[in-house]
């Protein structure tokens, strides 16, 4: 069963694909994504000790690090907790490792529906997506020590922070994911401009509303809920929005 258009496709228009061809293409792309993720899981499992040390490192910068860490180590309180922690860290890290393959396969899946002049954005799309995600992760790591210091400061001198490994690592992984994926929103906006849903004029007109929405989303997404982390996320997102407006205008959209 084929999906037909009344007009004949021009030379620059994508060829038609049947429903079964779309499903077969989706199956092949998902298989490659799952295979890449499985390989990355094996690599992340092998590198677990180094990854864990990297995640714990922000705690070592705190003034009270000697009180909350035992020789640079976190504690766990249940026999199964260590195994579950390793699974969580491995699964999350493998997702980051496999991100280039995931993005590339997603782009290749939508490519048949694009015109020839739109397919040229494939490599820039993947590269910029990875760059933005890496920027978000970097900002998360840079803000994490200050955020932890602010949060620990609310306890006063009568209380001391003794974080369990599971609680702390969940907090860090959520923060990294929040920053990493939120920094991908310019790609979504540019994608919407490519398909004609948005334009540079609409983005410019919505500038004030966009900044308000960014501040609200930053307040909701950041798990620390402190103003410092909020601004560390909101300001780069606002600048990325302005960059998206410029990029859309350069693309004449």
Produce a short descriptive summary:
This protein is mainly alpha-helical. The protein contains 12 helices and no strands.
Keywords for this entry:
12 helices; 253 residues
Order of helices and strands: HHHHHHHHHHHH
Low-confidence stretches: 1-12
Content of β-strand = under 5%
Overall pLDDT level: 78
Number of strands: 0
Distance between the termini: 35 Å
Helix/strand layout:
Elements: H1 19-46, H2 48-60, H3 65-68, H4 81-97, H5 99-110, H6 116-119, H7 122-153, H8 165-182, H9 185-194, H10 200-205, H11 207-221, H12 227-250
Helix pairs in contact: 1-4, 1-5, 4-8, 5-7, 7-8, 7-12, 9-12, 11-12
Overall description:
Helix 4 (81-97) packs parallel to helix 8 (165-182) and helix 7 packs across helix 8 (165-182). This protein has helices at 19-46, 48-60, 65-68, 81-97, 99-110, 116-119, 122-153, 165-182, 185-194, 200-205, 207-221, 227-250. The chain is built from twelve helices and no strands. Mean pLDDT is 78; it is low at 1-12. It has a domain at 19-183. The radius of gyration is 22 Å and the shape is flat. The protein has 253 residues and is mainly alpha-helical. Helix content is 72%, strand content 0%.
């Amino acid at each position: 069963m084929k999906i037909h258009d009344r007009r004949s496709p021009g030379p620059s228009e994508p060829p038609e694909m049947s429903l079964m061809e779309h499903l077969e293409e989706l199956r092949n792309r998902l298989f490659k994504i799952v295979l890449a993720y499985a390989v990355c899981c094996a690599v992340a499992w092998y590198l677990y000790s180094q990854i864990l040390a990297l995640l714990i490192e922000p705690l070592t910068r705190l003034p009270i690090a000697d009180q909350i860490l035992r020789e640079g180590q976190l504690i766990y309180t249940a026999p199964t907790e260590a195994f579950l922690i390793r699974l969580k860290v491995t699964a999350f890290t493998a997702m980051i490792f496999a991100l280039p393959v995931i993005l590339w396969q997603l782009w290749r899946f939508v490519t048949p529906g694009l015109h020839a002049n739109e397919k040229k954005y494939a490599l820039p799309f993947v590269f910029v997506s990875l760059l933005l995600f890496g920027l978000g992760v970097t900002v998360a790591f840079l803000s994490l020590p200050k955020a932890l210091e602010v949060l620990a400061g609310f306890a006063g001198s009568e209380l001391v922070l003794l974080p369990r490994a599971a609680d702390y690592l969940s907090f860090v992984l959520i923060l990294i994911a929040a920053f990493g994926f939120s920094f991908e929103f310019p790609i979504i906006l540019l994608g919407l401009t490519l398909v004609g849903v948005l334009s540079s004029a609409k983005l410019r007109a919505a500038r004030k509303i966009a900044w308000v929405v960014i501040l609200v989303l930053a307040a909701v997404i950041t798990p620390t809920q402190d103003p410092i982390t909020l601004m560390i996320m909101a300001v780069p997102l606002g600048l990325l929005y302005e960059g998206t407006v410029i990029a859309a205008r350069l693309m004449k959209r």
